[in-house]
Amino acid sequence: MSTNKPFTENPPPVLPPRPLTGPLGHPLLTRKNNDTPMVIAFRHIKPSWRNYIDFVDYCARNGDKDCDRFVKIFASLTNKQRFEHKPEQLCDMAQMTPGDLMAAVSKGMWETGSGESKMISAMSHPNLIERTVKLAHKEANFKDRELFFRLSGSLPDRKGNSVMPSVNINLGSTPMPNLPTFSGELESFDEESVSLARRLSPAAAIEVAAAPVPEPETEEPNNGEENEDEAEDGD
Hints:
Structural class: mainly alpha
Helix content: 40-55%
């Protein structure tokens, strides 16, 4: 007689109410297709917003405990519940805030997308280099030749030299001559600009026009010479 107990599957959990639902389960806010804010946020995920669980699973496999608990709850649902559920309901069951769920999904999308971009770049790089070389051999494609030489370092790029030659200049022990400096004699650019602006300002022209004109100096008569002239006239 076999002592093995028959396998019994645990009953699926009961989903909590959807966001903004009344006591009888009626929505308190009319939305298009009964979408919730998180469904609207996940609408950019392809092929369907329900694939957000792929990125939650990605974070769970990288050690996120909240995402691991979320995935386990999702796995315990029936197929009908998985299709009809809203992310906010599973957040309530996993004791995870909607903001943490969106952060985890965004992190998973960023890391997987960044890795895919690097792989595409790495796989395309040899083919593009080979095609650039083939096009550079044609006489009319001087732009491709220039691009190839810049990539290979034979030509300096537009931001500076990519090939830095090692040049050692030996000046010997001859000291540099003492060159005269005129920093104390010449005005700086700012000082010269301010001075020029003052000379060209209307106020300066008014001051010049209103400056008093000095009167010509007159010679004062010499009293001694006048007395001598009067004495001569008396004689």
